Amino acid sequence: MGRAQNLIEFAVATICGMNASKTPPQAAAATPTGPGWRIDRERAVALFGAHAHDWPIEIVEETGSTNADLMARVKALPRQAGALPRPIVRVAYLQTAGRGRRGRPWYAEPGNALLFSVACVLPRPLEGLAGLSLAVGVALVDGLRSLPVAGPGQIALKWPNDVLLEGDKLAGILIETAWSIDDASAVVIGIGTNVKGADELAAKVGALNADVPPQARGTVPTALQRALPNANLTDTLAAELNALEPALQRFGAEGFAPFQARWNAVHAYAGREVVLLEQGEEVARGVAAGVDERGQLLLDTATGRQTVATGDVSLRLADGAA
Predict the structure, then answer these.
(1) Rounded-to-integer distance, Cα 71 and Cα 36, Å
(2) Less CB within 10 Å around the terminal CB: N or C of the chain?
């Protein structure tokens, strides 16, 4: 498609979905104030590199979930390797049923968070998708570090699917598989990045977690504005898509193995004591030693090294870990 004028399609219709969030919809839908909170179409096109220019990008005011929207579309495709020649990107300023890993609601005010999903068909069977969320995490770190952020090294990864800024949660990744055959899999990659409003976000999440036991709470949220005062949705979208395109191409061809060293290099908890929780209960404890070629966590415990698949577990720093 190149630099076609209709690269980004701003949908005018509001698409509503079931509200599965704990946040009252009227509170989440508050109108942002101040100039420039929307994505600037012309600036985005100018910032896209050669790769991302070919991706159709839809932007809507509101939807239930961009993941759900694209999952429905991809499930209707023919189940074959060439079913989707190019990834499709869907961005929403507000998701009324946005969610993260394990079904947790994702809270965000319009204009403060970049919420989008990418649908693609990768030339890999289901078992070949191991480590995809980690590869996407590597791409996000590289994309965000391409922005003029203060202390770029403070943007790091927490296993299996969180991007951290100075130890707090900056972005999350949710990957769902629509279908898989012997030589291809259709996936939808959901990404939420907190761009602005860190204090308001932390207060809101803190209120939602008031009745949650401390050990079951997720990482404290933060926003990109903390390291980049003029952070905005437009530049963040361009940076992330520019990094995602080559990453998805390489993952499709080679799997997670070529991303392993890079992931370990930006591992936030490397060499630190961590605990693994399942439904709030500790199931393992040890020193985080990175990930293997399949994206499994390597944990050095009192009884030796263990490998941990993503599964239904959560990772936390052990109490008092430096």
Answers:
(1) 30
(2) C
